[in-house]
Amino acid sequence: MFRSNPLSIAINAACLTLLPFFVCAENKLDSQASHLQTNERSMEVIEVYAQKRKQKINDITVAVSVLDGEDIARQQLKDTTQLSAFVPNLKITNNAGEGTPPAFNIRGVGMIDYNTSTISPIAIYSDGIVSGSANNLSVNLFDLEHVEVLRGPQGSLFGRNTTGGAILLRSKQPDREFAGYINASVAQHDTLSLEAAVNVPISDSTAMRFAISHQDYNFSTNNQMPDQPDGGLKQTNVRLIIKSEFDDLIITSKFHAEDWSGKPKPIASLGIRRVDGSGNCQTSQLGSSLCADNFGNQIDGNDFWDVNADTADRKHDTDSWGTSVKFEWQLSDDILLTSISGYRSLVRFHSWDSDGPGNFIEGAMATDNTLFSQELSLAIDFGDNHWVSGLFYVDEEIQQNNNFDLFRDFRPVPGFETVAAQYFYDNQLENSSSAIYSQIEHRLNDVFTVTAGMRYTDETTKYHANADKDTVAFGFERDKWNEKGRVQDDEFSGKLALNQKLNEHSSLYYSYARGYKSGGYNAGYSTSQAQAMASEYAPEKLDAYELGAYLQFWQRNARLHLAAFYYDYKDQQVFVNQTQGIAVDHVLKNAGDSTIYGVESELLLIPSHDWELRLNIGYLPKANMGEFNQNGLVVEDNRLPFASKWNVSGAIIHEMTIMDRDLIAQLSFDFQSNFYFDQEENPYIEQTNFVVINGHISYELNQALTLTLWAKNLTNTEYSELRFNSIAALGAVTELKAEARQLGIEASYKF
């Protein structure tokens, strides 16, 4: 129905070029429509930190989506993996199960590699501290001021270079009033949650804020195997912020800790062989009684969320903590010196099952991860210029103690015992990055402001990959391979952009950005020395061209954000699932050049004081990877994984007064069109169109107490978090189910 061709780009660019005329016409209509008055809920000006300082959103040259803390709490968003339903062209999934490195994807740029050594092209910054490896991308969302999702390369101002984008989390800051809240919730799937925060003034200059979040829940999967768990986690997260404000100095100290434990979500092993021997099942028949795997195993259930997996011996455990300190010296009225230092420690064990009821493909990921970062920046305002320059350094050490157990059930079977093998990995990586950056914003006149920035980055990855192997024939073999190496890259990245003011509340922007992500070493589940030796990968680069608009109109009761972008992607880092015989190898390689382009829009309407309408649209007509052919490893010019052509989300919010108290009702939806979970475009590994509907109703019983009824996946939509091609090994597709319908009730008390 929709064709991918350059004509789409031209049409979109033309539309954006005509926006000034549209806005002028709209302003004229506004002046003529005397019957339309600015209502009580006309929207406030959005202020963001997308360019490392507080600015009005129409003053920046970045595509950014903003969710405030109230939105996050209202939607019952537990962590960063649930943000994708509210941002155009953003997709996030727990592609190897909750607690493992998630897959983040913005505008088709992402990384589906679940290995604990992975550096994602999308970074999270929690109160200014970079996330580092993908181990730290899943962050619980509680007691936040807001979240900003920056789409597109961030190659000038932000810590580690990212080709896809950045997500900024800003915690609620301490203030000088004693206050707090307690939120308690119960829901289906044995879900209990508690969130609380207290703000305490310590002196005239110092205040502290302590927040805690506790979640105890089961997954909605129904494990049909006797005495096997459905899976679930307990997650406790705490945060303490102490802030001191003096005449010329602000010191903000932060401590956080996380304790997660439980059982991983059991997978569904969807056999593709017809039980009558007539061939393979159709994709619509997977999971039914018509289909089984190579060993005759079936789900043994009629419900979509039924699975059949032996996960009693699988577990998850995470212990992490971190601290940071930020100094802001106002050296003069126009000069600000900022230093921010951070340290994080993460120890995690996650064991997984990928074969259902058998013992064929199982393993564990054990990670000991530490990160130190330091940034020093100087911001100067002089005349019509704002100039910021800085130094950035990050050092991250990753110690892996993984294992990979293949075909254990074959060990006692004569003639098949040679197929079975267990690998034990002792991998060590050290990733370090140093950078110097500078960006200036120059106000040319009352209409135009130009932004120019550049960054030089020097990154190094040192690795030591060591593996032992256990087989029936040879027993335990130490140092099956023992590889050491070093990957070093240095590169310039930057940005050139122009902001055009249309009026006080509306603007256009035109931007070029160079994104860069360094090379490294993919310390995954290698099964041979040759594969371990070939696991280095090179840097990728992305040239991004973008037109955008931030518009307010209709007496400031409507806001429209638009962006059209064109990406020229070179040496794209692609995670490939490659079948060799019955084994599946997971490799990260640089594919050829590719092209991505698309458009986005975010619309907010407030037609009256008691109604609010939101609609977000993301469209990716072209998001293909470059072709690659090296030593028998072939990557076709297929569509990128996790890259739907269409994603559309929206919400209707209605406020009313009942018995002199406020009632708020909200209904929201998220639509995703077809996408694939890997690069092969295999129909068995495709997620077809789906839509998820959520809602809530909250009633203010008094000024302190509010009661909320909420629902997730109201229509019980059936869709997957992951589908993995295990056909060669098992005659099955490995699937992680998304969550089923969940209804809950929450009580909130403020003091």
Question: What is shown here, in short?
Answer:
The chain has 751 residues and is mostly beta strands. The protein is built from five helices and 47 strands.
Account of the protein in words:
There is one protein chain. This protein is mostly beta strands and 751 residues long. It has one domain: Maltoporin, Chain A (Beta Barrel), CATH 2.40.170.20. Helix content is 5%, strand content 58%. It contains five helices and 47 strands. The protein has a 22-stranded antiparallel β-barrel. A five-stranded mixed sheet has the order 3-9-10-7-8. The model is unreliable at 1-38 (pLDDT under 50).
Q: Per DSSP, what share of the residues sits in E-state strands of 2 or more residues?
A: over 45%
What is the straight-line distance between the termini? 55 Å
Range of helix content: under 10%
Mean pLDDT, rounded to whole units? 90
* Secondary-structure content class: mainly beta
Provide the CATH topology: Maltoporin, Chain A
Indicate the low-confidence ranges by residue numbers: 1-38
> How many individual domains?
1
